[in-house]
Write a structure and sequence with these properties.
With 108 residues, the chain is of the alpha+beta class. The chain folds into two domains: 32 residues; 70 residues. The chain has two helices and four strands. A hairpin with a 2-residue loop joins strand 1 and strand 2. The longest helix has 29 residues.
């Protein structure tokens, strides 16, 4: 008989605890620091702990490589992106295509 009571207590208490956890993470997420000057536009995972990022810092856009140990700027993009406009080509793949096309034209 005691096992049934304990099981019922757990079934009522567990959802309440999960609800508290979800609410506290949402509240804490609101108070997380967000920069006005640095925005991550796009991120692509290339390995378990490595990412290629398209980052806008002030008015310049960079392609960066990050992993657990370090972060490197691969190149600054030739084309400047405006974050306020709805730009369908604002992603990492199109950024690579555009900049690599410019690099090939420079070599020729």
């Amino acid at each position: 008989m005691n096992y049934i009571i304990y099981t019922l207590k757990i079934l009522f208490i567990l959802p309440f605890i999960l609800l508290l956890i979800i609410l506290t993470t949402k509240i804490l997420n609101k108070y997380q620091y967000k920069s006005k000057y640095i925005k991550v536009i796009d991120r692509v995972q290339i390995a378990p702990n490595s990412y290629v990022l398209l980052v806008k810092i002030l008015d310049k856009t960079y392609v960066m490589l990050t992993n657990n140990n370090d972060s490197k700027i691969l190149f600054e993009t030739e084309k400047s992106f405006d974050l306020n406009e709805d730009n369908w080509e604002l992603n990492l793949l199109n950024c690579f295509k555009y900049n690599l096309k410019l690099k090939r034209e420079d070599k020729e």
